[in-house]
């Protein structure tokens, strides 16, 4: 059996930047085990599998896998898969589509060359002391910003938001893999455990996402799900309405731009992230 697939770079202004994504079509007959094997083989941060396609109503159902496990929600795979469907699969390049993922339907819309998703309502979980992080990193107390808490947040996938006081602290960040893994397993509420370090200076936002996969410390080039959590976090603690660009991936030579457009009204979060996608390749995958 042969499956068509596409490769795109997501949250990227040009090819060979942003976060890589493989999108597999006609995947309705694959088992979860087969999808996991394929995701591990291609070894991108995530791969997606289109398991149902409604061409008349511009809807699709997808499953999302990292090389290690299935995701309930992830931003860059949803943005990248939407770009493929809007530009290569659906007729007449629609401006609005719906993607169904395990947490539910995600509304997608396109404005010029940006594709936007609207995230689910966030949940704010445990708050942590900055001293925790000095145990498994090179960070000192003065490297943390003191205006906002350090907190785990989820909009479908959970991340611990860690604000830093300077771009230099973000750039020079070093984690001890084993101690980080131990802390994550002890403190995070779900099987998806990750840290999102950020530095906010006025309207400038820079970030790094790090986690443990297959006993390796992994850094992501662009993390849409973490960005929805960070946007919710900033709406709650920083200001209730803003637009800005989140810069991620600079320190692994995959510069990425994740567009934020958020608003908090009467405890309801309107969280939207957007990004560009660049077509890289297409082919057939033998199963």
TrEMBL record:
Q: Which GO terms describe its molecular function?
A: isomerase activity
InterPro entries named in the record: Phenazine_PhzF-like
| Residues the record marks as active site | 46
Instruction: Determine the domain of life of the protein's source.
Output: Bacteria
Tell me which Pfam families the record gives: PhzC-PhzF
Q: Which cellular component terms (GO) are annotated to the entry?
A: cytoplasm
Gene3D superfamilies, alphabetized = Diaminopimelate Epimerase, Chain A, domain 1
Which family is this protein grouped under? Belongs to the PhzF family.
Q: What is this protein called?
A: PhzF family phenazine biosynthesis protein
Which organism's genome codes for this protein? Flavobacterium pectinovorum
């Amino acid at each position: 059996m042969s499956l068509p697939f596409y490769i795109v770079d997501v949250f990227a202004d040009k090819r060979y930047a942003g976060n890589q994504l493989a999108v597999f079509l006609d995947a309705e007959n694959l088992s979860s085990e087969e999808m996991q094997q394929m995701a591990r083989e291609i070894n991108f941060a995530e791969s997606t599998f289109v398991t149902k396609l409604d061409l008349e109503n511009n809807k699709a159902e997808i499953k999302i896998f990292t090389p290690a496990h299935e995701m309930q929600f992830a931003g860059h795979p949803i943005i990248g898969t939407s770009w493929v469907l809007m530009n290569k699969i659906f007729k007449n390049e629609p401006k609005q589509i719906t993607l169904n993922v395990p947490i539910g339907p995600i509304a997608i819309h396109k404005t010029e060359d940006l594709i936007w998703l609207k995230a689910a309502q966030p949940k704010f979980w445990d708050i942590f002391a900055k001293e925790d992080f000095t145990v498994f990193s090179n960070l000192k107390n003065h490297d943390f910003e003191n205006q906002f808490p350090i907190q785990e947040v989820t909009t479908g996938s959970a991340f611990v938001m860690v604000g830093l006081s300077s771009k230099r602290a973000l750039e020079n960040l070093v984690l001890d893999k084993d101690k980080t893994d131990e802390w994550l397993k002890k403190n995070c509420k779900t099987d998806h455990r990750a840290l999102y370090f950020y530095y906010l200076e006025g309207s400038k936002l820079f970030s790094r996402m790090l986690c443990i996969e297959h006993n390796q410390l992994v850094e992501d080039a662009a993390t849409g799900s973490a960005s929805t959590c960070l946007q919710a976090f900033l709406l709650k603690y920083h200001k209730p309405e803003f637009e800005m660009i989140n810069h991620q991936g600079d320190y692994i030579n995959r510069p990425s731009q994740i567009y934020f457009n958020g608003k908090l009204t009467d405890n309801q979060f309107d969280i939207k992230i957007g990004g560009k996608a660049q077509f890289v390749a297409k082919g057939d995958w033998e199963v």
